[in-house]
Amino acid sequence: MRDPQRALAFSGQRAGDARVAGLGRLAVASLHAEFALSPKPGLVTPWDAGSHADMDARTFWRSLMALRGYFDAIARAGQAQAPFATLRQLGVQAEATMLRTTGGINTHRGAIFSLGLLTAAAGRLHAVAGGAPEAEAVCLAVRDWRAELDAAPLDPDSPGQRMRRAHGVAGVREQAALGFPLLRQVALPALRLACETGLPSEAVQSHVLMALMAQVDDLNLLHRGGAEGLRFAQEQARAFLARGSVWQPDWHAQLQALGDAFVARRLSPGGSADLLACTLFLDRQARG
């Protein structure tokens, strides 16, 4: 006769495995939602390339599809309590896959890092708690890898690292080591406020993006527009929020006009876009 306790344990394990496998799919879905959002000042959408001359919607879509296996693998690595070295190696391989798929174009490097770590942390907490963790708990769990993050080698010649040195600002590694305070203190509260008022998902995501743009020292903006470009983007985002954000009847047209201004200045807030995808992932995984 089949042992009912073993059967129950096996059933619970399979359910846990299914939940963790779903984290990888959820990470990709969150990236897709960020990609599909429009208008999105300076950023690639399904309808235009924003401020980018080297990539378009097809480039993004190919990259996104190529990274599906990475997010599944890093979720499972988190579930298995894999060491940081394993997570880092998965990220290095994913970046190589992205560059091979896009012909050397950086479409998702920031997401591979930030969203990858959050996916691993969510998988780890799922395994420990047996259920969906709170969004903030996932952010804070990344701090467990702070020593490894601080010790990990960086490419000193990458655009991001050059901007960090030139302008003395923190990058995504510092955000991760601190448990992603911008996600906990800016993005998630903005998302919850917008959701509570019954806004459609497009408006909710646009509000979160603009809240992030107002606060993030976006290395991509610094790379493309220097300190003046970053200041312009932040001031425009803060002004949009002060006028009423997506609760204004003409908010869509305002973002379209801001997009034209960003394109004229070649500005693209890629760091904020990555954090928007992270925010969507954190909120959705917490819903179970």
Q: How would you characterize this protein structure?
A:
The chain is an all-alpha fold. The chain has one domain: Triphosphoribosyl-dephospho-CoA protein, CATH 1.10.4200. 73% of the residues lie in helices and 0% in strands. Helix 2 (57-66) runs antiparallel to helix 4 (84-102), helix 6 (135-141) crosses helix 14 and helix 10 runs antiparallel to helix 11 (201-213). It is globular. It starts with a helix and ends with a helix. Mean pLDDT is 91; it is low at 4-13.
CATH homologous superfamily label: Triphosphoribosyl-dephospho-CoA protein
- Give, in order, the helices and strands: HHHHHHHHHHHHHH
Major β-sheet annotation: none
Shape by Cα distribution: globular
| Residues in β-strands, percent | under 5%
Tell me the total number of β-strands. Answer: 0
The CATH C-level name is Mainly Alpha
Percent of residues in helical segments?
A: over 70%
Please tell me the CATH architecture by its name. Answer: Orthogonal Bundle
| Measured distance between first and last alpha carbons | 34 Å
**Which residues sit in consecutive blocks of at least 5 with pLDDT less than 50?**
4-13
Count helical runs: 14
Radius of gyration, Cα only, in angstroms? 19 Å
Please state the structural category: mainly alpha
Question: What is the average of the pLDDT values?
Answer: 91
Oligomer: single chain
The overall number of domains is: 1
